[in-house]
Amino acid sequence: MTAEVFPIMRIGDTLLISLQGELDDATVLRIEDRLANEVARTGATGTLIDVSGLTIVDSFIARVLTRVVGMIRLLGSHAVIVGIQPAVAITLVELGVPMGHLHTALNAEQGMALLRRLRDHGDRAD
Amino acid sequence: MTASPVGERDPGTRLRELEAMLDAIAGYALIKLDLDGAVADWSRGAERLLGHPAGEIVGRPFATFYTEEDAAAGLPASDLAAARETGRAETEGWRVRKDGERFRAATVIALIHDDDGTATGYAAAIRDVTESRRAEAMFRGLLESAPDAVVIVESDGRIMLVNRQTELMFGYDRDELIGQPVEVLVPERFRARHGAYRGGFIASPQTRPMGTGLELYGRRRDGSEFPVEISLGPLESDRGTLVSAAIRDITERREQELRLQRQRDEILELSTPVIQVWDKVLALPIIGTLDSLRAARLTESLLEKIAENQAEVIILDISGVPTIDTQVAQHLLKTVQAATLMGAASILSGVRPETAQAMVHLGIDIGRLRSRNKLRDALQLALRIVADRAGSSQEAARTVMGEWPA
Fold first, then answer.
1. Rounded CA gap, A122 and B17, in Å?
2. Of A41, A77, B106, B258, which has the maximum CB count within 10 A?
3. Residue B150 has pLDDT above 90, yes or no
4. Is A120 in contact with B392 (Cβ distance < 8 A)?
5. Is the CB of A74 inside 8 Å of chain B's CB atoms?
6. Do the strands B216-219 and B225-237 form a parallel or antiparallel pair, or are they unpaired?
7. Å from A70 to nearest chain B CA?
8. Distance CA B41, CA B34 (A)
9. Whole-angstrom distance, CA of residue B222 vs CA of residue B225
10. pLDDT at residue A5, as a whole number
């Protein structure tokens, strides 16, 4: 299988990465590595993680998302997950995955707005 | 046999023994006819079966035992002619006893020759088969009148017998099916598997439904398929273990189930209406008791509407819910969590004083969920949240566009 490429786009001081298909351990590690380096290199203040293209979201993916968000925060940037589909949201709630601390938005536009609020008000905004 | 070799005995004794043997054969009427078809000799069995004493019947025509219609149609003569032509004729038909009672008889007529090959007469053996024919007719009748298609399959998988229903259900004539592998009635994609399952049934034959838990399909002659339910049963016979399969077309039942399911869905749909009250604001008035099924359905339709309308705020109005217990509260909180994951803010509305008390006493933690007493207040709050978000959205857009290289 060829390694999937997840392009990281930069819009102003925001990074956008779109996760698609199925994620395996190796791919996740590669994404974490590149994303951490990009956030550090560009000094982006916010990162949008688009998950609308993920075919499967289980507790593994949920842990991955939590990890990626934690990593981005440690680098001093804000992270917003966008595009969680209805079925995915139900699955995550039913699995009981603690995701309350994550910032989420419906789409990229609303995600950008949320990042803006996060930058202005710190972590108290939602 | 312990008797001494036949040749050692006096021919007279032998003849008497033979005669005794013939008379001892019960259930058969043995009749000797001359070449003209008149009775020449008459066994005890014939007397028992047909009722005529030997003294009365000798010299009477063979047609005496036929029904009037058959006699008029010349059947006795043609039966004898057939025997004369080929040496032996087997027929089955109605015969008449002395008292006029009719019975179903199987008759074998053989031509008798003397030592130099000249035909001297006929030997006829008549057997009463009324009972076995009746049993057979009963079996056929049962088979044909069965509401299900019945297919009887030999242990090698070939079709031995089918009933009328099978012809109607599958669109084959029975002649086309007899001798064919039973798999012709199975859709192509299941055929290989069916062969293996068939072996399994022969290995441990017992009456049971086929493919428990599976959706079974039959294949018509024209290739179309229909859902079926099949019961299997073993039939021990002289040809080994046969398998009888009763096949029922359940198309109608399946449709009815679907219709019921649709109705149930519609009722659930009606009981969980999601209303768009404002741009990007959805309201969900919950009325009545909230059980797990309804709660799941509610969450589902709400989340779908969020995605569809790109809603940013949802109002859950619980003024129509009679009691909030732990379970209902859990359902509500799960819905809120799922909506939050999608990026929509939730507002609870319609919390009555007693509900608030109950929830606090139950120790239900609503977390950061906003709550308003009246729907009007909840809507106001919703609009403010949307406005705030829109403001920051515009700001965000300005920031981005401003930094975009001109």
1. 123
2. A77
3. yes
4. yes
5. no
6. antiparallel
7. 17
8. 9
9. 9
10. 67
